[in-house]
Amino acid sequence: MSAPTARIVESVAEIAASAWDACLPGEAECHAYYRACEEAAAASGMGLRVAALVAERNGEIVAVAPLFRLSYRLDTPLQGRLRRLGDALFRHLPGLLTLKALCIGSPYAERCHLGFSPRLDEAGRSAALDAILEALSRQGTAEGAQLLVWKDLAPAEEIEAANLLKQAGFVRIASLPVAVLDLPFPDEGGYLATLSAATRKDIRRKLGKAGEVRIEFRSGISGLEAEIDALYEATRRQSGLDYGDLEVLPQGYFAAVSQALGERAVFALYWVGAELCAFNLLLVEADRVIDKFLGMRYPLAREHNLYAVSWMANIRFCIARGVGLFQSGQTAYASKLRFGSRLVPSVLHVRHRVTALQWVLRRLSPWIGFDRFDPDLAGRPGRKAA
């Protein structure tokens, strides 16, 4: 049997949905999801375009991964005052701070969706991964990319790839961990009992003072598309964090994902009177719900304690469906940890095309992780994820 070969395709649409989803079974962020992201970016001219790497053996697709290109600012991990210093330097020396990067992973996902055909054994997976590495390196050279990046590898994916990435000269850098909450409870009372007395009291106080908030769960968002886009963008700007192009969604993203995923994409809408004050986009899988994005209207969101209201609404949503894992994503860790979440590590593997600069990158890698500069994680002892 021949060894796998890999190539880059410029559109996820060039890969059959059945082949992609067979490599990543059960994922809500599936072929249809990536096509929706790609189409929204193309239609709006905003956001980063998604391509893909595909490995084949004897004409059969045996591995897939999303791919994107990025003009990466070296100060991207920095936040607060350090980021403002980076912004000032960037205005005067943009070329010095910006590198052309070719990245496996996606700006629209918290995990690198590297998937393999279930027909591959361990040796076959290793051969497919080796072919993907070769194709990435070949394409990076052709495009003049200064950085090759594997974005947001989860623990299982990193175990799969770690040895080959190390042999290929990649450097490991901490990314932002992903917050997840285990929900082995029959009702919300079981969940609340796991929290501290002070946290339970605070949640109940905030829910009691929330006032008249109407909560609606629905898949379609016809007529609300522009409002939801605006709520997300307002919340992103309000957050005080700035990860540049990595957090910019194309206009029309929410409508495209809603149409592509159908009932797997559920919007939790929070109304005060006739005014839409907040939303969550929930991606629903068999045993996991991903709280993909949150948008809030300020100051109404604070006046009605909508973060606590939305958190508990999502917990009830999961428990009612017997879903055992609630994934609330990256950033805003303080509240998530207080509400019982644990942090799952996420890592980058990076290689610079210039050997001397790769040596510098290797020496700096313990000090330039994204987790070191997140305001909720920077002061956390050890900053260790679960």
Notes on the protein architecture:
The protein has 386 residues and is of the alpha+beta class. The protein has 2 domains: 5-177 and 345-383, Gcn5-related N-acetyltransferase (GNAT) (Aminopeptidase); 179-343, Aminopeptidase. 38% of the residues lie in helices and 25% in strands. It is built from 14 helices and 15 strands. The strands form 2 sheets. Strands 1, 2, 3, 4, 5, 6, 7 and 15 form an 8-stranded mixed sheet that branches. It has a 7-stranded mixed sheet with strand order 9-10-11-12-13-8-14. The longest helix has 22 residues, at 122-143. The protein is globular and about 60 Å long. The model has no long low-confidence stretch (mean pLDDT 92).
The number of domains: 2
The coarse overall form would be globular
> What's the architecture of the largest domain in CATH terms?
3-Layer(aba) Sandwich
Oligomerization: single chain
Number of DSSP helices?
Answer: 14
Strand count, sense and barrel status of the largest sheet are:
8 strands, mixed
End-to-end gap: 40 Å
| Structural class label | alpha+beta
Name the poorly predicted regions: none
* Annotation, overall tally of beta strands: 15
User: Over the alpha carbons, how many angstroms does the gyration radius reach?
Assistant: 21 Å
Instruction: State the name of the first-level CATH class of the largest domain.
Output: Alpha Beta
Q: What is the CATH topology descriptor of the largest domain? A: Aminopeptidase
The level of helicity is 25-40%
